Amino acid sequence: MARSSPFIDPGPRTTEGTLALVHLSRDNLQPVYLRGSTGAVDGYAEGNVINTRFGSFPHSTLIGVPWGAQVRASIVDTGSRGRKKKPDGNGEAAPEDMTESTAAEEEPTAAAGVKTAASGFVHVLAPTPELWTMSLPHRTQVVYTPDYSYILHRIRARPGVRIIEAGAGSGSFTHAAVRAVFNGHPDSESKDTGKVFSFEFDKARFEKMQEEIEAHNLRDLVHITHRDVYNEGFLVKDGESPEADCIFLDLPAPWKALPHLTRASQNRKSPLRADRSVYLCTFSPCIEQVTKTVEVMRQLGWMDIEMVEVAHKRFNVMRERVGLNMPTERGTNQTAGNVAEALARLREVEEKAREFHGRAQGAGANEDDEMDVDEAKAEVTANGQVANEDQDGDDAKPWMLGRLIHRTEAEIKTHTSYLTFAVLPQEWTAEQEAAAFESWPCGQEKGVIGSLDKAVRKQEKRDMLAGKKRKKEMAAASKNGSGTASGNNSPAPKKSKSN
Ligand SMILES: C[S@@+](CC[C@H](N)C(=O)[O-])C[C@H]1O[C@@H](n2cnc3c(N)ncnc32)[C@H](O)[C@@H]1O
Q: Which GO MF terms are attached to this record (predicted)?
């Protein structure tokens, strides 16, 4: 059984050799391949260490912890690395002076021999395509989560299907696609395992992708080929067809690749699955590219062509907090929360001004200058917090204070690309046509096919009943030897003739 990818099944804890995403803040994640080590590495006695603005983290403290765990920073033994090197001949300082940790608790972490620092922590997250998109080393523009989640849904990427993707670029779409189609490893019981067939013509990007696919344990789910798809198409090794169910093209000129994505012809094998409709999406930033692509799509028999633009807008939901006593808190309005707070602040400012000018507190102050404040209404707490509303009581949780409001994020990504979708109907052979004609003999029907309107149905029923009645009467007449069955010598009903 192939070892599972951390993107598919990360297991309950971090393990040596796998990718972990170190979460520093909401928009700052650092990918780390966790390496165990027995000796010093790169001047650190603890082995491999990552350095962040929240402190240093030896890999040994990150291995074997539950995914999502908070890990405290460590005091690292920098050995020779910590000593300041003399400037070289050019007068330049030696590189990489490690920041010395300050006060430290003598508290060993889970990793033997490593001491926890006084402050600083990170969270260790399991890789997902969404987090990878945020943290991957960019070689190109990438497809972001709002776009690829919509694309994968529209091209019907689901467990077991096979996707063609070009170009691979930085692999952002590749990781999302592989998770969407995963339904087991090829060596497991499942026969039709989903797969991504990725193509990239830039050598350096192709090699980096290969390296990452290997490191993420996705080699049996992603088949990457170094290829110029405009000229060489999408067949894989030895001219084998990927038998793709769907296609995603993120190329500068998708219309140049489309002639290779047709049904089989006499002299050409198709890279597409023959017995199903194939779904396609192209991703182009300019409308001129879309126009050219749509033109070629129409010529090649693609149907249901539709263009969509995803305009992603994030809403931040937060508590609106107002107060002069919260100068360092994000999301607060730095104005007085109420009259009492404004007066308290004015008093503080005046007090400071008096001190500054060397006057004794209150000396010389005219009592008439004092403002008249209803002290009962507000109480200024020791830390300057004004507690005069129910929600501002001592027990109130800081994150529950203030009105709940929402704001759109400051920076809105309005345009990434135009998504053009299309469908190519399934391949249709003479045998399939014959089988369909057998089931639905169009033009040679003996009965009625499909629905008829009410009047026609009623007339048919009347005719049928009249026919039955006639048969009965004729049978009775032949039995009695008489001319009619009714005995009243009335003639048998005749079929009405039209004029
Ligand atoms: C915008 S990037 C793709 C980004 C990718 N979708 C992602 O999410 O990371 C476009 C890629 O197409 C590749 N490319 C351009 N022309 C190509 C061609 N004719 N055949 C194969 N790849 C090509 C480029 O080298 C580039 O890496």
A: tRNA (adenine(58)-N1)-methyltransferase activity
Q: Is 143 in the pocket of ligand 1 (CB under 6 A)?
A: yes
The two three-digit tokens of residue 499, written as one number: 């004029």
283 lines ligand 1 (CB under 6 A): no
> Cα separation of 362 and 248, whole Å?
76
Distance from the CA of 194 to the center of ligand 1, in angstroms?
22
Give me the domains of the chain, ranges plus CATH numbers.
Answer: 1-78+115-127 (3.10.330.20), 131-308 (3.40.50.150)
For residue 425, what is the DSSP state? Answer: P
Q: Write out pLDDT tens, residues 185-224.
A: 887 665 678 999 999 999 999 999 999 999 999 999 999 9
Q: Where are the alpha helices (DSSP H) in 31-92?
A: 59-62
* Nearest to 62, CA basis, from 93, 20, 30, 105: 20
Which residues, listed in sequence order, are joined to residue 21 by a DSSP beta bridge? 31, 125
- pTM of the predicted structure, to 2 decimals: 0.72
Pocket test for ligand 1, best of 140, 165, 222, 247 (most atoms within 8 A of CB): 140
